[in-house]
């Protein structure tokens, strides 16, 4: 048994998908995946419960770690332009088992992200319905919890169903709604910044570090996950006109834009409202209500409801491309790699993925599973950082015109250590669930993937 057999870049270069995405599409895809619940929810939680006004430093620390990780994605995207993102990259440098485990961690991350955002969108939308006097039956308002009398989150299920149908369309068309909503999102954030800056009270920034340096790092462990989603760009490589240049540009640009917006919003937010008051579910809108601008707060709330759809679209799109890539290599059932003749998209993978996400979104109280997203994502980023070092040993220095990660191997090692440090900030229960998830992934590989892999044809 050879679990270290490596995928060939040349053998992976053939594509049945339509190449029509440009760098602008990739930047908007990345921003659509990254900027969502982070800027509308996590900013307040980080300030109120972890770092106080120093939440800006938490975002800065997290941004440094994410940018370092993004560099590794960018070099891989330039030098290994194949679909599947980390799954494909690590299959080339470390071998099939490592690639599969990276892919498995990403499947968990994306699947849970799609379901949880749909559930969060449902909560916002139900709040809006309640404000206009419409009430759903309690049994249909949330995932299964017999004690609370809830059984199915109907709105979340409908959202996932509609997004699934939309993502079956041609990539350019499927991302059109995402691109539109990203511009709406920019407008909402700009409205908050332009209006909010006039209500900043510097006194609210004192004390600046109420929870000490530990609070800053704990806050960084939380807000780090507000940046997740930039790796969605790497999943689109097979549908990009010029992947070697455009994918790295899309990754780095989306991270820098997101980091800048997060930091600016957090500075203004903590300046408008004492940090002790920000432990609410809608801190950005709450800040406007706090300074008696209720109408602006309502606009921000409605905008947040609609723009959260971009996270669902981006994550589901990326998850489908990942499952398609793994299935195409034989590690998942072959029918998942079927391409729709009209739209040139992986239709079966879309429907199956959408059905699973719908089940989780409708039936499960996802707060019980959400931390798994955090630890699986960090594990994958560690593997990617170490992978760049291995890539340099295998393929040498990048050629002229290819993206080059700076300061190899120092920066990749820093990224891996930083991600490992953030993992240590997570709870013991999360580590137990992570261990179980890892065992399930290994079970799928050794029970199905290894013997059905296309690499058996060349062993």
UniProtKB/TrEMBL annotation:
Q: Which UniProt keywords apply?
A: Membrane, Transmembrane, Transmembrane helix, Transport
| Membrane topology listed for this record | Multi-pass membrane protein
Quick check: keyword Protein biosynthesis in the entry? Answer: no
Q: Which Pfam families match?
A: AA_permease_2 (PF13520)
Q: Where in the cell is it found?
A: Membrane
Main location class? membrane
Give the stretches traversing the membrane: 26-48, 54-74, 86-107, 150-168, 180-200, 220-238, 250-275, 295-324, 345-366, 372-391, 403-423, 429-448
Gene3D superfamilies attached to this UniProt entry: Amino acid/polyamine transporter I
Q: Which PANTHER family does the protein's record reference? A: CATIONIC AMINO ACID TRANSPORTER 4, INNER MEMBRANE TRANSPORTER YGJI-RELATED
Q: What is this protein called?
A: Amino acid permease
């Amino acid at each position: 048994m050879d679990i270290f057999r490596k995928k060939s870049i040349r053998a992976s270069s053939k594509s049945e998908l339509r190449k029509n995405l440009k760098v602008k599409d990739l930047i908007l895809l990345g921003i659509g995946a990254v900027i969502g619940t982070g800027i509308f929810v996590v900013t307040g939680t980080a300030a109120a419960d972890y770092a106080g006004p120093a939440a800006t430093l938490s975002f800065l620390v997290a941004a440094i770690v994410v940018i370092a990780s993004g560099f590794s994605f960018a070099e891989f995207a330039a030098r290994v332009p194949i679909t599947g993102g980390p799954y494909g990259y690590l299959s080339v440098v470390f071998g099939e088992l490592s690639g599969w485990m990276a892919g498995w961690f990403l499947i968990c991350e994306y699947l849970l992200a799609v379901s949880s955002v749909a559930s969060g969108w449902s909560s916002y939308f139900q709040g809006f319905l309640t404000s206009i006097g419409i009430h759903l039956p309690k049994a249909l308002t949330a995932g299964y919890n017999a004690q609370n009398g809830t059984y199915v989150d109907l709105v979340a299920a409908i959202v996932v169903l509609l997004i699934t149908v939309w993502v079956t369309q041609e990539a350019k068309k499927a991302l059109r709604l995402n691109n539109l909503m990203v511009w709406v999102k920019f407008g909402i954030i700009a409205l908050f910044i332009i209006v909010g800056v006039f209500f900043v009270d510097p006194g609210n920034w004192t004390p600046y570090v109420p929870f000490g340096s530990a609070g800053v790092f704990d806050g960084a462990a939380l807000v780090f996950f507000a940046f997740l989603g930039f790796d969605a760009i790497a999943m689109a490589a097979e549908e990009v006109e010029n992947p070697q240049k455009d994918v790295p540009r899309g990754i780095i640009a989306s991270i820098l834009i997101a980091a800048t917006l997060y930091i600016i919003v957090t500075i203004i937010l903590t300046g408008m409202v004492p940090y002790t008051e920000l432990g609410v579910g809608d801190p950005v809108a709450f800040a406007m209500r706090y300074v008696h601008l209720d109408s602006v707060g309502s606009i921000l709330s409605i905008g947040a409801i609609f723009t959260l759809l971009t996270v669902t679209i981006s994550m589901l799109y990326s998850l489908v491309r990942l499952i398609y890539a793994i299935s195409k290599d034989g590690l998942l059932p072959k029918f998942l790699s079927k391409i729709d003749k009209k739209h040139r998209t992986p239709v079966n993978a879309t429907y199956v993925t959408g059905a699973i996400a719908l089940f989780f979104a409708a039936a499960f109280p996802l707060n019980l599973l959400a931390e798994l997203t955090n630890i699986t994502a960090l594990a994958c980023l560690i593997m990617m950082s170490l992978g760049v070092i291995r890539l340099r040993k295998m393929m040498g220095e990048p050629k002229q015109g290819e993206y080059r990660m700076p300061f190899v191997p120092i920066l990749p090692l820093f990224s891996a250590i930083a991600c490992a440090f953030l993992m240590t900030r997570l709870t013991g229960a999360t580590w137990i669930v992570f261990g179980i998830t890892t065992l399930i992934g290994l079970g799928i590989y050794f029970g199905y993937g290894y013997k059905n892999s296309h690499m058996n044809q060349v062993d």
